[in-house]
Write a structure and sequence with these properties.
With 428 residues, the chain is of the alpha/beta class. The protein is built from 16 helices and 13 strands. α2 links the parallel β2 and β3.
Length: 428
């Protein structure tokens, strides 16, 4: 049995491995293959992974390789998390739109559209390769922008064994668990929408809807949240108080875009630039931990919910353990007021056989138009990424709720296409 992580040199990988080792009996005798084109950091993560496996006493062989075909051949599970263009590319996605007074973000607005142009061709290459070399494997995708990546896969390979993931709903469950003082694994969201754009009209704790309780908390915390900068937690509380439903935290970029834009314009660095400064510290820690007799992860790339989601989905499929998650796949009518033949994000049961959608109510009428507009722009952009049609890329940006005018879309798209030209052969 083989489990593969493509993008294995990512700073997220050690925590994902730590999550897998919590259920090491499921992977006894398996081979864990880390693949990446970043050979120096791949070796750092590889040494650390071997140390973690050794200390855990797990019967798991860790292999590193820069040969993708060798990595995926015969695999059972493949976790994809490549970052095409690296953090320098993300910094451009954030910085260029800001020059024209538009929010730059990894998955939203023109930055998210640009990231999709780079990521979609690579993920489709990987899916095609997996279908040839490991036809029984399940691909679990973390690569952003995850919603548009999933849309491209179901268009090109509608029968692919593929599940798109985003850790944001799991992060929301984690936060609710903290508020209610319960294990967040007991919480389920009736999430309806798209990646980084959806609402939960029910929040289930052991099957009981606790949204009324959360509304009461929001009514108390709302006045304080309104005085704070619009961040993930404060924005979520404000939207919960305003609409009585739990939002995807990324919706704050749409509902409070003017305030957030002012903050981004004042900031000395973008989020990507902050991460680029932090990464040497992370990899230095990983290198030192990998050289220690007993590696201990003292600093982390992301939130606990990120590693927990990936490891739990893979473990549930490996064990045949029917478990509820929020996933991305073909809508098929699960979210009634989004296109049935396109990708959406919704709850599903996952087990050894794949996934089974859990029906949710239509997105409420007062908030549905924004989600539908986001989806429309992303759908146009996926076509642009697949065909290399620059005019469609402009149409997608102009349709995006974060872009004020078509003229602005034209300028931003033109500059992004030029900046990322080495990674966009389809646009040549």
């Amino acid at each position: 049995m083989k489990l593969v992580i493509i993008g294995g040199a990512s700073a997220y990988t050690p925590d994902i491995i730590a999550g897998l080792l919590k259920e090491q009996r499921l992977f006894s005798g398996w081979e864990l293959v880390l693949h990446d084109i970043d050979e120096p950091n791949l070796e750092v993560i590889g040494r650390l992974a071997r140390g973690m496996v050794r200390v855990a006493g797990a019967d798991l062989t860790v292999v590193t390789t820069t040969d993708r075909a060798q990595a995926v051949a015969g695999a059972r599970f493949i976790l994809t998390q490549p970052r095409v263009g690296g953090f320098k590319g993300r910094a451009l996605d954030e910085r260029i739109p800001l020059k024209y007074g538009v929010i730059g973000q990894e998955t939203l607005g023109p930055g998210g559209l640009s990231f999709a142009w780079r990521t979609i061709p690579l993920i489709l290459e990987i899916v095609e390769e997996v279908r040839r070399l490991a036809p029984e494997a399940w691909i679990i995708n973390y690569a952003n922008p995850a919603g548009m990546v999933t849309e491209a896969v179901i268009r090109k390979f509608p029968d692919a064994r593929f599940i798109g993931l985003c850790d944001m709903p799991t992060g929301v469950q984690w936060g609710i668990g903290k508020v209610l003082r319960v294990d967040f694994h007991r919480i389920g969201l009736d999430y309806a929408g798209v990646n980084h754009g959806g609402w939960s009209e029910r929040v289930l704790l052991d099957g009981e809807d606790v949204l009324p309780r959360l509304r009461r908390y929001a009514s108390v915390l709302g006045p304080l949240a309104s005085l704070l900068p619009v961040a993930e937690e404060s924005g979520t509380v404000r939207l919960l108080g305003r609409y009585g439903m739990v939002p995807d935290p990324y919706l704050r970029y749409y509902y409070y875009k003017d305030r957030i834009l002012k903050k981004l314009l004042r900031a000395r660095r973008t989020r990507a630039e902050e991460l680029m400064e932090r990464l040497p510290l992370l990899y230095g820690h990983y290198e030192a931990a990998g050289a220690a007799d007993k590696p201990v992860l003292e600093i982390h790339r992301g939130h606990q919910s990120h590693s927990d989601l990936a490891s739990q989905v893979i473990a549930s499929m490996a064990a045949g353990r029917r478990t509820r998650f929020v996933i991305q796949q073909r809508n098929g009518g699960t979210v009634p007021n989004l296109p049935a033949d396109q990708a959406a994000q919704f709850p599903a049961f996952v087990d050894a056989n794949g996934w089974e959608p859990i029906a949710v109510p239509p997105i409420r009428a007062d908030v549905a138009p924004l989600i539908q507009q986001i989806k429309e722009a992303e759908s146009i952009n996926v076509t642009a990424a697949l065909t290399g049609d620059a005019k469609l890329a402009v149409e997608a940006a102009a349709a995006n709720p974060l872009v004020p005018r078509r003229q602005v879309a034209e300028v931003i798209v033109g500059e992004l296409l030029k900046a990322h030209q080495p990674y966009l052969p389809q646009f040549r």
